[in-house]
């Protein structure tokens, strides 16, 4: 209850209303004290007028008049003459004097607070203007005990009334908040939970109904997000089904093409000039088709294992890649080189890093051989305090604009004619699994450079911070 929005709102409302009542209480108690003292002056004036009318009264009657006026002495100034009208014994010296003839508001408040704090019974002098101009000034002396008791009684009643008002106001606001804010918010949360149970069901998408502008905007935004997510899930399901179908077709087609590839060996041995001229093209076409099927199947394997990160000497992996590529170009004028600092080791999966570097090197080799010119491929590496940097640079013709636009997109980012574009997509995915990046650093008519960044930092989960 306390941790709920409506519960906290109830508590805060009660506190703020009480604070407002306290701010009202201070000037109210000061006004009560002022009116109390004026009332005593008025009573004293009536008593003094009664004495002036009779001219002479007994001591008992004089004491009764003072008791009824709740004062000790009455001094009335008439015609510039200060005259003690009623008097009795004063139990102690006068503690303070208060002039009620147009006093400042702050002075009234400070005097009232001082009276509430002071628990001792004092004798004070109070001066004011007589009622209906019955003289120039009236002055009384009185004890403060009854004044303080009356102020406390008034203050308690004010505080009780303030508490009742604040609680009643808080309850009304609590009910209003639950009706106009909490209930619509709970409705939105309920729609979210209902949608999360089956996001592909379009019937679970929220329909905006809130009357509050902000909640209406939240519902409309949620409706838009749910609509887009439902469409994306349906598209993903269709793509998954399509991918499964393509994988099955590619698997069967690969088997068919493999069988066809065996027959091309016998065709290649034919003495017919036309057959010998056309056979290499047929072999190349079938080989490309087989490679496309194998790449499609490899990309479709969502169970690609996570990298097993260990510290490995980078030179060893690079040497294996270059040795493998040199076998494929022993009859061509293509050079391989490496620039790896001695003893440099990186944290990576050796098999996956080999696949990435082999893919980049093979792409560079095919691009250079396609030009019919000589060239060079270099694998270099550096490191800094944050990461290891590996670059594969070639002197090939550079990447065409279309390849750069869709470079790492499957089936779109092929860098050569007949390529599927899966190699770079798979390589980038493997590097991401290492927490790193694979990017095209530079490409032009004089060559291309791909850069691999492998971070040195490790992510450590701190359970104590959760």
From TrEMBL:
Q: Which EC numbers characterise this protein's activity in its record? A: 2.7.13.3
Membrane-crossing residue ranges in chain numbering: 9-30, 154-177
Swiss-Prot/TrEMBL keywords = Coiled coil, Kinase, Membrane, Phosphoprotein, Transferase, Transmembrane, Transmembrane helix, Two-component regulatory system
Segments forming domain Histidine kinase: 248-458
Q: What class of enzyme is it?
A: transferase
Q: Which residues form a coiled coil?
A: 215-242
Query: Record's SMART domains?
Result: HATPase_c, HisKA
Q: Which GO terms describe its molecular function?
A: kinase activity
- Give the reaction(s) catalysed: ATP + protein L-histidine = ADP + protein N-phospho-L-histidine
Name of the protein in question: histidine kinase
What species is given as this protein's source? Parasulfitobacter algicola
Q: What is the lineage of its organism?
A: Bacteria, Pseudomonadati, Pseudomonadota, Alphaproteobacteria, Rhodobacterales
């Amino acid at each position: 209850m306390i941790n709920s929005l409506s519960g906290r709102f109830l508590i805060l409302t009660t506190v703020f209303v009480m604070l407002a009542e306290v701010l009202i209480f201070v000037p109210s108690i000061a006004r009560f004290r002022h009116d109390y003292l004026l009332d005593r002056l008025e009573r004293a004036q009536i008593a003094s007028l009664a004495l002036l009318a009779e001219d002479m009264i007994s001591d008992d009657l004089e004491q009764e008049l003072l008791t009824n006026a709740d004062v000790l002495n009455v001094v009335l100034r008439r015609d510039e003459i200060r005259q003690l009208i009623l008097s009795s014994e004063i139990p102690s010296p006068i503690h303070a004097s208060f002039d009620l003839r147009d006093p400042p508001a702050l002075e009234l408040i400070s005097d009232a607070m001082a009276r509430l704090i002071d628990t001792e019974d004092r004798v004070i002098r109070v001066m004011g203007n007589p009622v209906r101009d019955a003289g120039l000034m009236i002055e009384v002396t009185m004890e403060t005990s009854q004044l303080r008791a009356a102020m406390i009684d008034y203050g308690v009643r004010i505080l009780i009334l303030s508490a009742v008002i604040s609680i009643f106001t808080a309850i009304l606001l609590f009910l209003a908040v639950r009706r106009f804010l909490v209930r619509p918010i709970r409705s939105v949360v309920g729609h979210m939970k209902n949608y999360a149970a089956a996001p592909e069901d379009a019937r679970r998408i929220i329909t905006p109904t809130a009357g509050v502008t902000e909640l209406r905007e939240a519902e409309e935004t949620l409706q838009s997000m749910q609509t887009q997510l439902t469409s994306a899930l349906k598209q993903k399901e269709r793509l998954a089904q399509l991918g499964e179908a393509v994988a099955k077709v590619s698997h069967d087609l690969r088997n068919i093409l493999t069988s066809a590839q065996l027959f091309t060996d016998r065709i290649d041995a034919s003495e017919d000039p036309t057959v010998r001229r056309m056979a290499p093209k047929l072999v190349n076409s079938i080989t490309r088709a087989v490679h496309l099927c194998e790449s499609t199947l490899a990309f479709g394997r969502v169970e690609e294992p996570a990298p097993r990160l260990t510290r490995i000497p980078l030179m060893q992996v690079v040497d294996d890649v270059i040795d493998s590529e040199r076998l494929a170009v022993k009859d061509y004028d293509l050079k391989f080189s490496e620039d790896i600092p001695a003893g440099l080791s990186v944290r990576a999966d050796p098999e996956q890093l080999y696949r990435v570097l082999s893919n980049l090197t093979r792409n560079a080799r095919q691009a250079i051989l396609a030009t019919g010119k000589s060239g060079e491929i270099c694998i270099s590496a550096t490191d800094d305090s944050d990461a290891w940097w590996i670059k594969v640079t070639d002197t090939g013709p550079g990447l065409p604009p279309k390849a750069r636009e869709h470079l790492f997109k499957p089936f779109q980012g092929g860098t050569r004619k007949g390529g599927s574009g899966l190699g770079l997509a798979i390589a980038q995915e493997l590097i991401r699994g290492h927490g790193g990046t694979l990017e095209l650093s530079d490409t032009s008519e004089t060559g291309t450079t791909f850069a691999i960044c492998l971070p040195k930092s490790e992510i450590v989960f701190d359970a104590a911070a959760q």
